[in-house]
Amino acid sequence: MKPILYIALICLTSCHARQGREAALSTIPSFAMLLMDSTTILKAQEIPTGQPIVFLFFRPDCPHCQSETQALLDHKDSLKNVRIYLLALDPFNEIKGFYLRYHLDQYKNFTVGKDHEYTFFRAFRPSTIPYMAIYDRNKRLVTIYNQEAGIENILKAIHI
């Protein structure tokens, strides 16, 4: 196959796969997370409607994830009516350390947990860390960021 045709085929296939992935995420898929009390499991179906929803898939030791989290906290007043869920696959004690370092227990709209059964990872298939999916107040997908989103983009997406 000629190189140009091969490249065109790859581009078309990856574009179609991405569109299919976003279609599968058009509403919040089923997943569960183990919360910081280490006993409570929160299921996606239990997340209420009525407020925008931000999912941040992160690693506690990732500088970009730390920066993104700090930006969210720096704009906590603008985000007080947004439900923010931070999930990680790392060992529970590392996630808990992140949770305590940023005092996330002080914010009612922030929920932190471990993707203990890889259900978030399998549903969303994040290709990078940080990974962010933003949903509107009716649980419909607004946008996905496969990188650090930046607070301006987050604020713009949740006020649609």
Query: Could you tell me the mean pLDDT?
Result: 89
CATH class: Alpha Beta
Total helices: the number is 5
Distance between the termini: 45 Å
Extract low-pLDDT stretches.
1-18
How does the helix and strand content classify structurally? alpha/beta
Q: Could you describe the largest sheet, including whether it forms a barrel?
A: 7 strands, mixed
Number of domains: 1
Arrangement of strands in the largest sheet: 2-1-5-4-3-6-7
Classified in CATH, the superfamily is Glutaredoxin
Inertia-based shape: globular
CATH architecture: 3-Layer(aba) Sandwich
* Beta fraction: 15-25%
Supply Rg.
17 Å
Fraction of residues in helix: 25-40%
Q: What do we call the CATH topology?
A: Glutaredoxin
Essential attributes:
disordered N terminus, globular, 7-stranded mixed β-sheet, Glutaredoxin, alpha/beta, 160 residues
SSE order and pairing:
Elements: H1 3-24, E1 32-35, E2 41-43, E3 53-57, H2 63-74, E4 83-88, H3 92-101, E5 110-114, H4 119-124, E6 131-135, E7 141-145, H5 151-158
Parallel strand pairs: 3-4, 4-5
Antiparallel strand pairs: 1-2, 1-5, 3-6, 6-7
Please characterize this protein's 3D structure:
The chain has 160 residues and is α/β, with parallel strands linked by helices. The chain has one domain: Glutaredoxin. 36% of the residues lie in helices and 21% in strands. The chain is built from five helices and seven strands. Strands 2-1-5-4-3-6-7 form a seven-stranded mixed sheet, covered by helices on one side. A hairpin with a 5-residue loop joins strand 1 and strand 2. The chain is globular. It starts with a helix and ends with a helix.
